[in-house]
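Worked example (supplementary).
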Amino acid sequence: MKITILGNNSALPAFGRYPTAQIVDIQQELFLMDCGEAAQMRMKQYDIRSHRINHIFISHAHGDHYFGLVGFISSMSLLGREKKLHIYCNSFIKKVIELQIPWNLGFEIEYRFLEENEKGVLLSNEKYEVSCFPVYHSVPTHGFLFVEKKRKRILLPERVQHFEIPKYYYSKLTEGYDYIDKNNRVITNEEVTVKGLPFKRYAFCADTIFSPSICEDLVAIDLLYHEATYLQDQIQKAKERFHSTAMEAAEIAKMAQCKKLIIGHFSSKYRDLNPFLEQAKSIFENTELAIEGSVFEI
Amino acid sequence: MKITILGNNSALPAFGRYPTAQIVDIQQELFLMDCGEAAQMRMKQYDIRSHRINHIFISHAHGDHYFGLVGFISSMSLLGREKKLHIYCNSFIKKVIELQIPWNLGFEIEYRFLEENEKGVLLSNEKYEVSCFPVYHSVPTHGFLFVEKKRKRILLPERVQHFEIPKYYYSKLTEGYDYIDKNNRVITNEEVTVKGLPFKRYAFCADTIFSPSICEDLVAIDLLYHEATYLQDQIQKAKERFHSTAMEAAEIAKMAQCKKLIIGHFSSKYRDLNPFLEQAKSIFENTELAIEGSVFEI
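After joint prediction of all chains, the assembly is encoded as:
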């Protein structure tokens, strides 16, 4: 699982930083998390294969999290997309799209409206599961949890050599297949591989006030993205605007025992982002800034 | 008068090129021409003082000419704008804005809806005049003509020295004021200055099929922006989609006897723009590409 940061700023673009958008890549299937203005330009810039996006998740209906959506959908249509697109969002987003794109896109959009305070699985298959949970902002807002379920099995080199299994078949073995040798003997997968690593978990918490209650949705998280709009001296403003400080984001990562934290949604009043990193690290050491273009692998 | 190119591509952003948007600067008052997605990012990048924009002109209601508008207006509000904003557009644009920004912006927007085939003055004062005229695209579309009217008078150095007029007063003289000397004698402006240069004229012709009839609206144009979506081998596609080729744009500049031509709105199928320039120059030598970030002075 890989996360690419397309935009890391809050509402007002500043210092070359664009509003919120991220790509989650699970075994080359891509998911778009929020779609601030110019997200599609960033995708081009970072060589994101946007035709692989089939599911878009919009955390809430504030412009800096969705103003890029209509342009991106329009571009998908111009590029000849035919596959159905799934959008998980507030019902308002559908109105915005349908007002501006009343024509036939050439593909279907299936909306899945998120209800206020909704919690639960949105999408599940053998490879991954995506669920939503409420976070707490000035309008109904959701966090999203990605679980990569299918983990390739790990080859036992001595065993595959012992059974003289040809190299071209190794990738099949990691996917769980048995092997039939030239004497028609079945070598079961369990004889030559062991179980892969545990599931990987990524949680995306866009705009939210500091809210320890979300920790119950952040169990065994490998990587947490949590907004950090302000530095600590602006904690009062953060509260008033239902945002968090870098230290508050770090506090959540610490309480939830996440393995790693990335912070973003920086206010346009800050040119230098290093103080965000310093303040967060003072509470939770394994923190990184969500610098645009960065790729975080789990 | 200065024109800054913010976006020069057609609908699909490509090769780092963004959709249509330009700034016209007349004596430090700025006008925004079209507002494709991420126009506000380009303004930041090119140090455009966007608070000086009081008038926005949208040529037509295709997304690549307005998708950046709601984000830009939203940012103006976040930046504390109080001054009224004027938008000249199809009435559909108002619906798009009002759906997405139902709250109080802190400033008023005055819409001036452009009727199909409308031609005439939209805005006029002692410094400039802006008018619209129809161009011919798949939806109602307007070109815009900017005339910088007020031209500072030119000082006659020997005369101002003769009357011993102090240097600090020179700029007043260029604005047409008389001077009263220490003996209370009035030295009239005509005694020490001559009339300035003729009016300057910029015409913006966004999406349009090749249409010689627009030349009647392009009288004494110093600088013409004309769309050039395709190269000449795609002339049939240009016609079908109500767009122009580079050579057709040059043909218009030649027929209208414009002094200079800039071409843009390039199709995303072209990485290399040099053939556009070569083809246009074969018909109209004084052509330049509307490269993003370029500034054209008249």
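Two points are worth noting when inspecting this output. The mean pLDDT of chain A is 96. The interface with chain B takes residues 11-14, 16, 18, 37-38, 40-41, 44-45, 63-64, 67-68, 70-71, 74-75, 78-79, 95-96, 99-101 of chain A (CB under 8 Å).
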